User: What shape does this take?
Amino acid sequence: MTDADSRDRPDQQEGEGVLSWLDARLPVVSAFRREYVDYRTPRNLNGLWNFGAILTVVLMVMLATGVFLAFNYTPTASGAFASVEAIERQVPSGWLLRSIHVAGASMFLAALYIHLFRGLYYGSYKAPREMVWLTGLVLLAMVMLAAFAGYVLPWGQMSYWGADVAGKAVDAIPAVGPWLEHFLQGGDAPGDVSLHRFFILHMVLAFAVLGVVGVHVAALHVTGSNNPLGVEPRGARDTVPFHPYYTSKDALGLVLFALVFAVVVFFLPHVVFEAENYRPANPLHTPADIEPEWYFLPFYGILQSVPSKFGGLLASVGAILVLFLVPWLDRSPIRSARFRPFYRVCMGGLVVCFVLLGFVGRHHAQGGWMIAGRIAVVYYFAHFLVLLPLSARTERGVVLPDSLAGGRGA
Amino acid sequence: MRGAAILRLAAVLGFAAPLADLAPAAAQAGPHDRPPHRAWGFEGPLGRFDLSAVQRGYAVYAQVCSACHGMKSMTYGDLTGMGLTMEQVGRIAATQQVPGGVDAQGDPVTRAATPADHFRDPFVNPEAAAAANNGVAPPDQSRLALVYPGGPDRIYALLTGYRQPPAGYRPSHAGAVYNPYASNREIAMPPPLRDGQVVYTDGTPATTAQEARDVTTFLAWVAQPHLAARHRLGAQVMLYLLFLAVLAFLLKRRVWSDVH
Assistant: This one.
């Protein structure tokens, strides 16, 4: 490159310094400025829009603590429990890292469910944001799988018998079930081979999640954020630059979330640590009450409410798969539930049913819970397959606001 | 119990406080009397251990419990957490013999334990433990205070609850004794504590109740050795985050003042 060349393109390198030098060769600085500083964001985002940033930070915390736990973990049936005990007792600050990691799993799933609810309620899945929605659902599935694999790793009683129940669920698939269960477990019961696989699956998924988050955020930055009014911003008055407006707002949301997180880690660890899992895995002794973590309970409730075992498996997997169809099941051009009274009531019913199914799951769908569970399962699917497609017909003569600045959105 | 945890979480988050009463009592294997609640210093959000009670409890464990019960997650070095110096821990470890590999002839040898060694198991395997104890292997005590339904209250009640069986009580197997706080009101462990059984170096009178209270405190400490550090760090973290939250709120309000 000659001097003449560089004079031809004076815009290539503005100013002096390392950052300008770097940006001329790899434009990360200008990309960061474009996507996280100047990035135009609707001015009326409410607190529910904090959860994207919160999830990103919790993911970082999970990766950081997880790597240090993995350094001290032994993925064998004979050594796993003792290595986790050593992390808790002998590794300096190991108890703190593990407590943050275990509580982090619950906090992550809780934030994820809120984030998902916000997408459904404000119609963030609608054109042109379908790819944001679909990549988000892929993330949900990956995170659930990672959380399950992670729960097996300490190899306590609940770990072992949770893996056993999951194996039995696979076993219920007609024809290939028993073969598939044996293949996935590497034996007739959870053991050394399955534990080693769960460990690798857990680690691989954790970093794969990071990659898909990149795709999710990239897709979001193509279309820009939805907002509580669900109408696209028109002009500069409707938007504010991401920094300092949403950096300051996300900072506040993160600190408030960290407060709840800290309360769980330091004062209520029994909320996320199942006491039974402090007993080492014993294949000869089934615990009295096998229950998954709270974030799986609604799906466990579906599994147990459906009379047939295979049917229950289909229904609980279908409860997630049906979400992938939502952008095409919803025919209404209106995004936000604020302007969709019928859909708004239906969403309320959906939340009630989802929580109810969690209680059904923890009561093993016995007695009255069985009836409640079946009603909730029917409503859950009817919401997406019947009420959502039909709701557009109830929405006539809706007047949407012209701009975000005029509407009281924030 | 997982479900109860959700209810507690929901209660903490403040939107389902009335639901917390729905949580059923912890699942217990067989019927037994309800242990009376006792005040423990390690309870509550700022609870911590009375380390002199923990040290006396260790004396009870070392002189009584350890004859039958293992505590295999603990190392001798972990005892520094109850206020002992490394020299004191080293002396305790040195009184124990652990497997030391093999000698030049290939025969197994033993050596004195070091602070890095785990507590010696009293039996070589669970079968030997069961055979020596009326067919029931004594449970490992590393996490007993957490995993035993009823926790420290029930452990204390059990240790002090041996009494004359009611008329008509028949032991279900040889060596079983009556105890109203054990599952099915029967236990394979004969009364382990009596007055003066343990020698306390700090001059505390070694009554059965005192021994039971101290060893229960010790077991609770072993089950959660970092409880006090967790509470102390938690209070500091909460103060820091609350302060940060105020700053973040003021910053946010100032940044947004030209928008609203």
